[in-house]
Every structure is written in C-alpha cells, then in structure tokens.
UniProtKB/TrEMBL annotation:
InterPro entries: MFS (IPR011701), MFS_dom (IPR020846), MFS_trans_sf (IPR036259). Residues 22-479 form the Major facilitator superfamily (MFS) profile domain. The chain crosses the membrane at residues 20-44, 56-76, 88-111, 117-138, 150-169, 175-197, 209-229, 235-255, 276-300, 312-331, 338-358, 370-394, 406-428, 451-471. Keywords: Antibiotic resistance, Cell membrane, Membrane, Transmembrane, Transmembrane helix, Transport. It is found in: Cell membrane. The keyword Signal does not apply. This is MFS transporter. It comes from the Bacteria.
Length: 479
C-alpha cells in the first residue's frame, strides 16, 4: 500500500507475465501474514503449558506481533514508494519467513516474543505495499473490482481459516508447526514474487523522504498500540503517560505535515466524512470480531472441553461462508442495495451473533449454542467488510487512495488490539472474582467469557450506531 500523495507507480508486466499470476503471488503473501494474526489463537493453551507463560504474559504472544505491525504500516508503505514496492514486498516475505522459523524453534518465552515482534516487522513490510501494487496491475475498473474481490476474500477468510489451521497443526504436530509451516510457503511465495512480479524502480531514497514525519508517526502508532494491548498488565499510572506521549507525537506529526513541502500524509484526507467515519466504524467492528476469535476459541477449549483440532474444525464454517459470500455475492449485493445499507445489515448480524454468544451455557452444544452465532458473525462480516472498505476508499481523492488504504489497514490493527486488550482481561477479571467467591472453575470461566461476549455485542452496536449517524449523508453519493 502506497502512502505517497501522488498516484501509484504503474507496474507494467510484459506480455509473458500474467497479471492474475501476480495477483496470486500478492494473495499468497497476504494470506500468510493474515493467517499468522489468528493461527496462534487456538494454540495459546499449548504454548502456555509448554513455555510456562503467565495469563498476562500469554497475551504478549499476540501483542508482540501487533505492535510493530500496526506501527510500521505507514512507514513501510512510504519506503516502498522510495525503494520500489516489489523490493519491499519481497524483503517483507524474507523477514517474515525467517522470523517464523525462529518462532517455531523457540524454546523460551523471550525468544518467542522477540521472534513474534520480528514477524510483525515483516508483516508490515509485505502488507503495506500490496494494495498499491494490485491497483497498478489492474487499471481497468471492472477487472480491478474482480481483483479486489478476490484479494478481500483471501484476507477476510484467512483470518478465520487461521483458527482452523492452528487447531489442526497444534493437535497433529505440535504448536511449533503453526510457525514452521511458513517456511515452505514463504520460500515458494518469495521465489514466485521474484520471478513473476514486474520491477518498479521507486522514487529513490534521496527524494521526497519525509524522515522526521515518518519517525513521528511510527513512534506514535507503536506507542498507541502498546498502550492499548499492554494496559491489562500495567497500572493506570503507567498507561496514562504512554497515551499522553503518543498524543504528543501525533500532535508533532500533525504540525510537521502541515508545514512539510512533501508531507508523508496529506491532512485534508481526514476532511472526508467517509474516510474518517469508515475508519472509526472499523475500529469498533474489528475489535468485536478479533475479540470473538480469541475468546471464542478459549470458550470451546476451557468450557466445552474441545481439543485443538476440534476447536479448529468448529471454526471452519466461518472462513467457508466468508469466502463464498465475498466472492459470489458481495459485489452484486452492494451494487443492488448500496454499500451503506449492506454495511448496516452486516453490523446488525454481527451484533446479534455476539448477543447470542452472551448466553452461551456452561454445558453448551455446538449445533445449538455455537454454530448459529458463528454463522451470523460470518455472514455479517462478509457483508460489512467489503461495504466498509468501499466507503472508506470512495471518500478518498484519487491522489490519496494509497494513503487511505494504509490508514484503513492501520485502524484494523488498532481495532484488533483494542478488542484483545479490553475483552480478555474483562473475562479474566470476572472469572477471578467468581473463583474468589467460591465458584467452581468451569462455571466461573464460562461466566467470564459470557460477560466478554455481552460487552462485545455492545461494541458492535456502537459500530452500528456510529455508521448510521456518520456515514448516512455522504454514503448516499456512493450507494
């Protein structure tokens, strides 16, 4: 994803290079990084037992990935413009693959967390330039719409598919293989990227590099994500100063962008009601869905007694439904009813699914207590995500499309971090309070998860209300 103010550098594949083969390479690289964001979820109990993580420390297996990933997206996108997007994409694949091997070979907590952070760096390098490359490869509107539909389906279904693969690999081969499996995939994707993707020279590191702005926004974003995801393990007296420092860096960055001759980020982008509103809605929606993936997997294992493989199989309908709907129906549904209406309908389904999970019993059954809300969440996300993406991108001017894409990816990470930071300690706190009062372990654990699900349903309701209030007037122009 490009973060330049101007239009993306056009990749011009030779006649022997297939644009759709290039799309397959971009999707493969994206799928690997997207899967990694969720594949660890179902393996968390096994990692905890093997390496001796505490409850609070275990969250850092996820947080260590999210902090550099979220903080480096804008910087990596800008560097891609300067050194060439193909180079940045390939370098990101190499870093991510090497870090995955380190994760798989880790025998201690410190090495695993450090390797996960390096994975986040590689993931940001890869993800930041993909959409800019895709848009340049498909300049014709109809083909571009098809390409974006395929790319969106891979990204959306990949997050849910990771839960299934994590369970299967952990159960059949051990948790180390959720990382080691990336070695053959990464090598194949890197080899294909070098051979298939057309080179682009980039602008050069000596031209138009807003280095101070890049440093400020990277520090601000990383501090923000760190303050959110680490809040559960710190006192408020520590979290507040971190948030204040992040705010100071954001302020300094804003002043820099207002005065820089070639700013990294054009501030007028935020003047678009669609761009700002869609990103705000996304933070709440992704917080809900990411919290569901994490808490839902724990509910199946610690309350219903599922093993890793069964947990993965239980989640499998979600990526199947998401992929099928996004590839087969989403574009036509948006064309018929408008992105705004489809977004609202999807958010209604997500809210309903989370509300049903808020009633999940201690001795729940999959067919009646888990599958129905899972399908509601999958259908709702398949409807809402493409519609929300379309609204966010429609609100950006042509010269700011790359930056709007980078911003949209960044708020996804912030939303996921927020969901994990709020819902996980909320569930743990409720469970601990009940255990202190003498409750049995399973009922206390189940009640903690039910509380998290109920809170998540209100977060989804907030996303619905915000979308209805903020996006209504402007979205009609793009319905």
């Amino acid at each position: 994803m490009s973060t330049t103010a101007g239009p993306p550098t056009v990749l011009s594949p030779s006649p022997t290079r297939s644009r759709w083969a290039s799309l397959a390479v971009l999707c493969a690289g994206t799928l690997m990084t997207v899967l990694d964001g969720s594949i660890v979820t179902v393996a968390m109990p096994a990692v905890q037992n093997d390496l001796g993580f505490s409850g609070a420390g275990l969250a850092w297996v996820v947080n260590a990935y999210l902090i550099p990933f979220g903080g480096l997206l804008l910087l990596a996108g800008r560097l891609g413009d300067l050194v060439g997007r193909k180079r940045m994409f390939a370098a990101g694949l190499a870093v991510f693959t090497a870090a995955s091997v380190l994760c798989g070979l880790a025998t201690g907590r410190g090495l695993l967390v450090a390797a996960r952070a390096l994975q986040g760096v590689g993931g940001a390098m890869t993800s930041a330039v993909v959409l800019g490359m895709l848009v340049a490869l498909f300049p014709e509107p109809r083909e571009r719409a098809r390409a974006i539909a395929v790319f969106s389906a891979v990204g959306a279904a990949g997050g849910a598919l990771g839960t299934f693969l994590g369970g299967a690999l952990t159960d059949l081969a051990g948790w180390h293989w959720i990382f080691l499996i990336n070695l053959p995939i990464g090598v194949a994707a890197l080899t294909a990227a070098v051979r298939v993707l057309a080179p682009d020279p980039g602008e050069g590191l000596g031209r138009n590099a807003d280095c101070p702005g890049a440093a400020l926004i990277t520090g601000a974003l990383m501090l923000t994500v760190y303050a959110i995801v680490g809040s559960a393990g710190r006192a408020a007296g520590t979290t507040a100063p971190l948030g204040g420092l992040a705010a100071a860096l954001f302020t300094a960055f804003t002043l820099r962008q207002a005065r820089a001759p070639r700013p990294l980020l054009r501030l007028r982008l935020f003047g678009s009601r669609l761009v700002s509103g869609a990103n705000a809605v996304q933070v709440l929606m992704v917080a809900t869905m990411y919290g569901f993936q994490f808490i839902g997997a724990l509910y199946l294992q610690r309350v219903l007694g599922y093993d890793e493989l069964t947990t993965g199989l239980a989640f499998l309908p979600a990526p199947l439904v998401i992929g099928a709907l996004m590839l087969g129906l989403s574009a036509r549904t948006v064309a018929r009813f408008g992105a705004y209406r489809v977004l609202l309908g999807g958010l209604v389904l997500i809210t309903a699914g989370m509300a049903l999970l808020g009633r999940a019993p201690d001795d729940g059954r999959y067919a009646t207590d888990v599958l129905p809300p899972l399908l509601l969440l999958a259908v709702g996300f398949a409807a809402a995500m493409p519609a929300l993406t379309g609204l966010a991108m429609a609100g950006a001017r042509e010269e700011g499309a790359g930056l709007a894409s980078g911003l949209f990816n960044t708020t996804q990470v912030v939303g996921g971090s927020l969901g994990l930071a709020v819902l996980s300690p909320l569930a743990a706190g409720r469970t601990d309070a009940l255990l202190d009062d003498g409750a049995a372990l399973v009922p206390a654990t189940a009640e903690g998860y039910r509380l998290a699900f109920r809170v998540a349903s209100f977060v989804a309701l907030g996303a619905l209300a915000l979308a209805a209030a903020v996006l209504r007037g402007r979205a009609a122009e793009h319905a």
